[in-house]
Amino acid sequence: MSKAGAFDLASGLTGGIRKEDVLSTVETYEKYHSCYGGEEKDRKDNYTDMVNKYYDLVAAFFEYGWGESFHFANRLKGESLPESKKRHEHFIALQLGLKPGQKVLDVGCGIGGPLREIAQFSMTSITGLNIHEYQITRGKALTRKVGLDKTCDFVKADFMKMPFPDNSFDAVYAIEATCHAPDLVACYKEIYRVLKPGQCFAVYEWCMTNSFDPHNQEHQNIKAEIELGNGLPDIRVIGQCLEAVKQAGFEVIWDKDLAADSPVPWYLPLEKNQYFSVIGFRNTAVGRFILRNMAKGMEYIGLAPKGSQRVLHLLLKAADGLYDGGRKEIFTGMYFVLARKPHLDS
User: Fold this and answer.
1) What does the pLDDT look like over 277-323, one tens digit per residue?
2) Does the pLDDT of residue 265 top 90, yes or no?
3) Could you give the CA distance from residue 152 to residue 268 in angstroms, rounded to a whole number?
4) What distance in Å separates the CA atoms of residue 182 and residue 175, rounded to the nearest whole number?
5) 74 Cβ partners below 8 Å, 6+ apart?
6) 126: enclosing H helix or E strand
7) Contact present, 162 and 129 (Cβ < 8 Å)
8) How confident is the model over 62-69, as a mean pLDDT?
9) Which residues pair with 126 in a beta bridge?
10) In this predicted model, what pLDDT tens digit does every residue of 177-234 receive, in sequence order?
């Protein structure tokens, strides 16, 4: 457990939110989603509020349970989860052809785990952009700790309207972040605007695969669980994501669902029906039972804020939806696209 995660869990803080606000925040957040009668239009119209409330509730839990890099990765046999995530990050740097001294943008940077890894690997200067105050503050602290604060920085802003001039960056990437966008074409157009002509954008996108059947109720329930558990307005299918890149003006170099031929299933860390989990005992069936009862007991005696059980339920729903979506091959967490902004004279 990270020290920050342990402190936040013990003190009733989850992502910069006061403990007395946890219950009202989770109640408001839940109402955005179809499981609680919410509509997709409301999630898209109020995406900033929905996403901020989601990360208010879960950001520190993510660091506790998942480390500093909030993403999945295709895994090789014999490779640990942390090793696979580093390789996943190095892969995006290599695909972008990053060179020392280049100015790079990380769109939806979380607390900066991938930013720091890629900056050290490629010797580039990276700006992390995020809408959530707690994650920005945490990212800055962790970046200072490893001595990268002179070359890397963080900006609190919405990736739908970024505070950068046109043609500012030598490369842009997004790792499982633009899935929060209410309008993917508009989001990619904004990325296109700030990228220099002739340079590349790489993205790992969350998508429903071509195996997803919108008329299948089980498939719809899994999609709704993923949206609820991960602060998403909607999950697009792969074809919609690829078309959005093209509509934004990019030239697609190549694309592939990297989950399709992963030697070790990307969703394996979320498996609950086992006695041991690669991300720890807490994700096993027994571990979940203990966590639920701990949360219930701590909330009852006042050691944990009211609403803690519902936050835990939210996180477990997220894990179940992602696991079921991956196992049934109707969802992927790593649809990869590499695209180029054409030269001005093209």
Assistant:
1) 434 545 555 455 456 556 556 565 655 667 777 788 888 888 899 99
2) yes
3) 33
4) 17
5) 84, 88, 258, 259, 261, 262, 263, 264, 266, 334
6) strand 125-130
7) yes
8) 82
9) 104
10) 999 999 999 999 999 999 999 999 999 999 999 999 999 999 999 999 999 999 999 9
- Report whether 108 contacts 123 (CB < 8 A): no
Q: How confident is the model at residue 4 (pLDDT cuts 50, 70, 90)?
A: very low
| One-letter amino acid for residue 222 of the chain | I
DSSP 7-53: HHHHHT-SSS--GGGHHHHHHHHHTTSGGGT--HHHHHHTHHHHHHH
pLDDT value for 64: 76
211 with 264: CB under 8 angstroms?
Answer: no
Above pLDDT 90, what percent of the chain?
70
pLDDT of 36 reads 85
Report pLDDT for 306.
Answer: 73
Token pair belonging to 8: 């936040």
For tokens 């720091």, what's the residue? 116
Q: State the angle between helix axes of 308-327 and 47-66 in degrees (0 to 180), rounded to the nearest 10.
A: 80
Q: Is residue 79 exposed (0-12), middle (13-18) or buried (19+ Cβ within 10 Å)?
A: middle
Residue 86 CB partners (closer than 8 Å, separation 6+) = 117
d(CA 279, CA 291): 15
122, containing H or E segment:
helix 113-122
Q: Are 342 and 198 spatial neighbours (Cβ–Cβ below 8 Å)?
A: yes
- Tokens 């429903």 appear where? 208
Q: What is the DSSP string of 160-209?
A: TS-SS-TT-EEEEEEES-GGG-S-HHHHHHHHHHHEEEEEEEEEEEEEE-
Backbone phi, psi, residue 337, to 5°: -135, 130
**Phi, psi torsion values for 252, nearest 5 degrees:** -75, 125
Q: Would the pLDDT of 119 be above 80?
A: yes
Burial profile 47-61: b = 16 or more Cβ within 10 angstroms, e = fewer: beebbbbbbbbbbbb
- Residue 72 near residue 176 (C-beta atoms within 8 A): yes
